[in-house]
Amino acid sequence: KAGVTQTPRYLIKTRGQQVTLSCSPISGHRSVSWYQQTPGQGLQFLFEYFSETQRNKGNFPGRFSGRQFSNSRSEMNVSTLELGDSALYLCASSPDSGRAYEQYFGPGTRLTVT
Amino acid sequence: AQSVTQLDSQVPVFEEAPVELRCNYSSSVSVYLFWYVQYPNQGLQLLLKYLSGSTLVESINGFEAEFNKSQTSFHLRKPSVHISDTAEYFCAVKASGGYNKLIFGAGTRLAVHP
Q1: Cβ B49–A101 below 8 Å, yes or no?
Q2: Tens-digit pLDDT profile for residues B91-103
Q3: Of A33, A87, B57, B72, which has the fewest CB atoms closer than 10 Å, so is most exposed?
Q4: Which residues in chain A touch residue B92, judged by CB atoms under 8 angstroms apart?
């Protein structure tokens, strides 16, 4: 099976712009979670989607949003970018049952805000 | 709520020496425990996990971790490290009955020197 893929891998944006990141989960996985990784704050949970519904959310401002499509692909959007949004954004997918506790991570999208 | 503390931000060690990366957690509910590894410019890979049962868990590449409920610890060990083990290691917890939200420690950078 192909792993979790994320596009683009690298992105440079300017303050005030918005950005959309994409994640394709492992085939058959309906749960997709997003994490932000920064040197200062470490790895922080953003949100989780399952079957097109957000079922868990971390402590991030409303500028961070996401959605999931019927094919389980997910996007996250950050509006009005700030310098502090520069980070590696990781997506992870999980199987529905059996090993539902396991999360398989993609390579990440590195966002730089200038 | 859960929290994870990784007691060492950096651990330098010589090749073929043993190593221990320390992890303590706090939680008011039962949890699953994980160790993830991150190589440069890559996402996270699951190294090993503790769900229940035997408190000693092993990975295929020689790492092991021991769950200690009384000390709320989940330390990672390897009896003999290789240069290729150089990476960042993250300890994480997830509420056993909850959705897919991992709480990560700050990470420990393992540097193996020849």
Answers
A1: yes
A2: 999 988 778 899 9
A3: B72
A4: 43
Q: Could you report the per-residue pLDDT of A57-91, keeping only the tens digit for each?
A: 999 999 999 999 999 999 999 999 999 999 999 99
Chain A residues with CB under 8 Å of B46 CB are 102-104
Q: If you measure CA to CA, which chain B residue comes closest to A54?
A: B99
CA–CA distance, B15 with A96 (Å, rounded to integer)? 40
Instruction: From B55, B65, B54, B66, select the one nearest B89 (Cα to Cα).
Output: B65
How confident is the model at residue A96, as a pLDDT?
Answer: 78
What is the average pLDDT across B83-111? 93
B93: β partners: B33, B103
- pLDDT of amino acid A16: 97
Are the Cβ atoms of B102 and A4 closer than 8 angstroms?
Answer: no
Total residue length of chain A: 114
Q: Model confidence at B109, in pLDDT bands (50, 70, 90)?
A: very high
Which structure tokens are listed for B4? 């994870």
Name the average pLDDT for chain A.
94
* DSSP of chain B: -EEEEES-SEEEEETT--EEE-EEEEESS-EEEEEEEE-TT--EEEEEEE-SS-SEEE-TTS-EEEEETTTTEEEEEESS--GGG-EEEEEEEEETTS-S--EE---EEEEEE-
Rounded to whole angstroms, how far apart are CA atoms B102 and B34? 9
Nearest CA-CA distance, residue A66 and chain B, Å: 16
CB contact under 8 A, A104 and B104: no
